[in-house]
Amino acid sequence: MSGNWTFVCATGELLPGEMKTVFDEVTGTPIMVVNHDGEVYALEDKCSHEDFELSSGTFDPVEASIECVLHGARFDVRDGRALCAPAYSPVAKFPTKLEHGGIWTRDDRD
After folding, report:
1. pLDDT digits over 30-67, tens only?
2. Closest CA to 53 of 29, 81, 78
3. DSSP SS3 for 7
4. Does the keyword Metal-binding apply (predicted)?
5. Which domain does 90 fall in, by range?
């Protein structure tokens, strides 16, 4: 994928502790974007244990983790790594950029 970035929202619309979901305009991949202490992270919105959206889970700003509501798997929002069973594989992490007053992300997998 080249430089096809997907607009998430204006920077002021995603405050620390908040998350939004978008679909990559090219691949159709669901992406969850989280503001953790002013840093913006993007992960595939899909639990690696079972195909279920992570964004319906609970974000823990102390641990910087998101918990899947289905079976309680937790992932670090900063790098996508699995923090506990039943998930053992990480979720895909995507690049983000702040540009022109907005937050952007993209599925950069080939």
Report:
1. 999 999 999 999 999 999 999 999 999 999 999 999 99
2. 29
3. strand
4. yes
5. 6-103
CATH number of the domain bearing residue 31: 2.102.10.10
Task: Give per-residue pLDDT as tens, 69-99.
Answer: 999 999 999 999 999 999 999 999 999 999 9
Question: Alpha-carbon distance 89 to 56, whole Å?
Answer: 19
Q: Write down the pTM of the prediction.
A: 0.94
- Token duo for residue 52: 């279920």
Residue 10 domain-assigned (yes or no): yes
DSSP 3-state helix, strand, coil percentages of the chain (rounded to 5)?
Answer: 5, 40, 55
In a domain, 57, yes or no: yes
Residue 44: which H helix or E strand, with range? strand 39-44
SS (H, E, C) 57-82: CEEECCCCEEECCCCCCEEECCCCCE
C-alpha distances (whole Å) from 21 to each of 29, 43, 84 are 10, 10, 23
User: Residues for the chain: how many in total?
Assistant: 110
